[in-house]
Amino acid sequence: MRLFLALGLLLTLPLYSQDTIFPVYTTDIPCFTDRPLLVRYDSAIGAMLTDVSVPQLHYYAPVPRAGTGKAVMIVPGGGYAIEAWDHEGVDIARYLSAHGYHAFVLSHRLPARLTGSCQSTAALSDAQAGIRRIRTLADSLGYGNDHVGIMGFSAGGHLAGSASVHAEIADGVTTRPDFSILVYPVTRMNRERNGHPGSQLNLLGEAPSEEALRYYNLPENVDSLTPPTLLIHASDDTGVLPENSLAYYRALVEHGVGADLRMYATGGHGFGSARERPGPVAGWLEEVTTWLAAQ
After folding, report:
1. Which residues form the BD-FAE-like domain (predicted)?
2. What is the tens place of the pLDDT at every residue in 189-226?
3. Residue 26 contacts residue 63 (beta carbons within 8 Å)
4. What gap in Å lies between CA 237 and CA 225, rounded to an integer?
5. How many domains does the chain contain in total?
6. Residue 266, SS3?
7. Pairing of strands 71-75, 20-23
8. Distance in angstroms (rounded) separating the CA atoms of residues 15 and 125
9. What is the CA radius of gyration of the chain?
10. For position 210, which CATH number holds?
11. CA count, 13 A, side-chain hemisphere, 251
12. What is the pTM of this model?
């Protein structure tokens, strides 16, 4: 019944006709609810998802003859309360697909809309299942199933980082990305709430256990199997402080993992594609495609 309801909701979504939509789950959805998809529009950043019950992958195929054989799952940010769908999802997918990458934008359940154990587990389950699903689509879509990476923004960067440090294997398919790109990511969760208080509250609640804090404090979970990572941040980011990226970068280096860091002097938080921003941050996506070519 849950799968039937999920497929029914999937067929009614009117969001975007130019992309192909794949369900994240082909079996029952854990922590399933039948609430409708809710979308809000902002004149500055476009569509924002404010509730998701059926996780999906919106696929943007690469420009013909420009394919690189690599796929990237993009996770928009929004403090685990919304998803900045256009600003940090569709805009980025269109750029990557124009440069030869198979781009998937993940819509995942929002912890702020969930309760109980589902609040802290559903989003990560969606991200892990999304990576697994993309691997299973590799042969039919034309990329390598061992060239599947993840890219996340802000709280979406925390989710992408969580998928990078917490991997599972099911039916011989790993959920660990082959590479990660974390853009002004939240990486720290602790009693001091000095990563991003809102994201931590929405994911873990008012009084998280020590176990939950350790699990989602990402630098603490980096090991030698963590995928090579590119971190993007602005020094003047006051929303998610640069120390989030610096702490994760230091952990990668300590464990011998390939780590690149681009720290721009200006750019603030939530710059998205940054095409309208002055200064070097406007070219960060070119840095990404240069880095991806070497992965």
Report:
1. 60-251
2. 999 999 999 999 999 999 999 999 999 999 999 999 99
3. no
4. 29
5. 1
6. coil
7. unpaired
8. 23
9. 17
10. 3.40.50.1820
11. 22
12. 0.94
